[in-house]
Amino acid sequence: MSRQLLFVFAVVALSDPVMADTHKFVPSPKGSQTYAVRDPVLRIKPGDIVETSTLFSDFYTAKTGGSGYPGEAGPFFIEGATTNDTLVVKILRLRPKIDTGRSGTGGRGYAVLTPTTSTPMLTDPTPTRRHIWQINKEKLTGTLDLPLSQTKQIEVQLSMMLGRLAVAPSGDQAIQGGAPGNWGGNMDSSDAHEGTTVFLPIFHDGAYFYYGDAHALQGDGEITGTGIETQADVTFQFELIKNKRIAWPRYEDNDFIMVAGSVRPLLDAFRIAHVEMVLWLESEYGFERWEALEVLSQVGVARIANVVDPNFTVMAKFPKKYLPRR
């Protein structure tokens, strides 16, 4: 048998679903509040499927108070993952697990249109309010009472997403869960929905994958600092792209390829995402660099995922219908 045929056989064998395992993983109630290298909670192989859920606390259901954000589940150790590879995370299924979700505003805090705790203001603090949404898990709708408005109740169509998808960052860092960066983290992009594939760089052998922060719905920018925060059932499948390194997280769904850039100021997050998109179009899709820039400038879509986290996140999106056929 030729070397070429042996290589094809090896690739087919590695992707054979018979060799993959399905893990039903129940995370510990107490999650991690940082992304870092720590003892893994689960070891999996490329191709494996994990059926699990995000973490829960009364943070999601209490009208006031609550026990606080429960943290991220993880890390998962992916066997065979090295720093020369790319981690592939497929979101196969993402559905609400509970029938409530929480959002709100309050005081001087975590938002963009309200005063903060770190910047002096001459204005009064924003009223502290917690809004509890009722979730219909069958219809995938959310209902909120609006007692002080002309419209006394509103019903919206939900679009489940995962705000936090991460690997352990480089070196010995332990980075707070609320921050996004080149390791992924709290990107808060509504593009992380059911059917999306997320590509993450790897900084440590094993990758150390974390996940959490399910939102039943979130508008661009996450301007109050929260989506409709809830708990979700999620099914992942994990793969590796061997001997390929990327600099920043990438997403792909049915309609777009995407790059997440996360930093402050917002303009630099925009630049990171769009520079990486041009380089992706050049290196993998056959575009000449400056022609890629021209086409992206005319057909690209930019999503401001969040402007509230320690770093802001911008998604550069390129429509797949304009990619060359492979």
Please tag this protein with its features.
3 helices; globular; single chain; mainly beta; 21 strands; 9-stranded mixed beta sheet; disordered N terminus; Jelly Rolls; 6-stranded mixed beta sheet; 2 domains; 326 residues
Care to give the gist of this entry?
By secondary structure, the chain is mainly beta.
Task: Please provide a written account of the structure.
Helix 2 (266-285) crosses helix 3. The protein has helices at 3-14, 266-285, 289-299; strands at residues 22-24, 34-35, 42-44, 49-53, 73-78, 86-96, 100-107, 126-136, 141-145, 153-157, 161-166, 175-176, 180-181, 184-186, 197-201, 207-215, 232-241, 250-252, 256-263, 301-306, 312-319. The protein has 3 helices and 21 strands. The chain has 2 domains: 27-100 and 157-321, Sandwich (Jelly Rolls), CATH 2.60.120; 101-156, no CATH class. 40% of the residues are buried. 13% of the residues lie in helices and 37% in strands.
Number of helical stretches of at least 4 residues: 3
Uncertain runs with pLDDT below 50, 5 residues or more? 1-15
CATH class of the largest domain: Mainly Beta
Main sheet properties: 9 strands, mixed
* Strand ordering within the main sheet: 1-4-17-6-15-18-19-21-20
**Beta-strand share of residues:** 35-45%
Number of strands: 21
Class from secondary-structure proportions: mainly beta
CATH architecture group name of the largest domain: Sandwich
What overall form do the CA principal axes indicate? globular
Number of domains: 2
